[in-house]
Amino acid sequence: MERGEALEVWRGCVNAWECDELGHMNMRFYLARAFDGLAGLAAALGQPRAFATEAAATLQVVRQHVRFLREAKAGDSLFMTGGVAEMQEEGALALQVLHHDDGRPCATVLSHLLHATPKRGRAFCWPARALAAAENLSVTVPEFAAPRNFAQDEPIDPTLAWSQSLTRIGLAPVAARDCDVFGYMTPDGVLARVSDGMNQLTAPLYAEIAAAEPERRLGTAALEYRIDHLGRPRAGDLVDVRSRVTALAEKVILLEHWLCDPVERRVWARAKGVCANFDLDTRRAAPIPEAVRSRFALTA
C-alpha cells in the first residue's frame, strides 16, 4: 500500500474452532475479520460509533472481492491493515489486508461500501471530516489484491438465481447470532452458508476423482471469491443456497452460488468462486484428472 501508511484495524489469532476439515481457517472467518476491521477503518474516518446501536450512519457492504493467499492454521497470529483505495460521494472502496505475524499477506478483501443509514440502508454524502480523514488513509491496491478472475463491472441478473441448473446445497433461517447490531446478517454469512453446503455440491466430482486417484487425499480450498450483497436478510428470514460448478480447469474448480428467500422470491446475494483441487498432504493445488474433467463436460 504505497500512497499512505497502512492503518492497523484488527489483531488476533486463529481459533481452533475456526478451522475446517482441511486443517486451516475456514473462508467465512476471513470475511468475519474484515467486518470487524471495518470498525477500525470507520473510526479513522471520524465515525468511531458506526457499528454501535445508536449510530446515525454506518458502513454498509455491497460487494466484496476476496483473495486467499496463504493458509492460516489454528494458533497462527494475524493482524489486518486497512485503507481507502477510492473515496466516492456516498461510498468508498476499502482495501483490507490480513497478514501473518511476520508481515506476509494471508488474504486480501476489497469491499465496496456505502455510507448509509443503519436501518433503511439509504446512502448519503460523507461529512467533510470523513473526506479529510480519507486523504491520510489513501492506499493503492497492490497486484496481489487485485481481481484475477472477476470483472468489477460484471452485470448481475437476479432471475438466474432460480435456474434449474442450480442445486440446493443449504436451507436454513438466519439466526440472531448471525446478525449485526442493526439486525441484519453480517457479510460473512454468505460464505458461511456456501462453506456449509460445499461438500454436497462437490461430492459427485470428488467421488470420480477418488475413483481415478484413490491414493490421494483431496479437498477444495478457496483461492478467490466475488460476493455481491443484493439484499439484507434479517433474523428469521429463510436462506436457500443454490449452487453449481461452472467449469473445471487443470487444477481449479469454478463455482457459482445464489442465496435466496424461497418464500418471498427475494435474492439475498450472489457469490462466484475459484477453488483449488487441494492436496491435503502436499498442501498444494493438484491436477484434476483429464478423464474426470471430460466426463463432467465442464472443461474451462
Characterization of this structure:
The protein has 300 residues and is α+β, with helices and mostly antiparallel strands. The chain folds into 2 domains: 146 residues, Hotdog Thioesterase (Thiol Ester Dehydrase, Chain A); 153 residues, Hotdog Thioesterase (Thiol Ester Dehydrase, Chain A). It is built from 4 helices and 11 strands, in the order βαββββαβαβββββα. A hairpin with a 3-residue loop joins strand 8 and strand 9. The mean pLDDT is 94.
Count of discrete alpha- or pi-helical segments spanning 4 or more residues: 4
Cα-based radius of gyration, to the nearest Å: 19 Å
Mean pLDDT, as a whole number?
94
Q: Outline the low-pLDDT stretches.
A: none
The end-to-end distance, rounded to whole angstroms, is 33 Å
Number of DSSP-assigned strands: 11
CATH class of the largest domain, please? Answer: Alpha Beta
Percentage of β-strand residues? 35-45%
Largest sheet: 11 strands, antiparallel
The total tally of domains equals: 2
Shape: globular
Helix/strand class: alpha+beta
CATH architecture of the largest domain: Roll
The helix content, as a percent range, equals 10-25%
At the fold tier of CATH, the topology name of the largest domain is Thiol Ester Dehydrase, Chain A
The CATH homologous superfamily of the largest domain is termed Hotdog Thioesterase
User: What's the SSE pattern?
Assistant: EHEEEEHEHEEEEEH
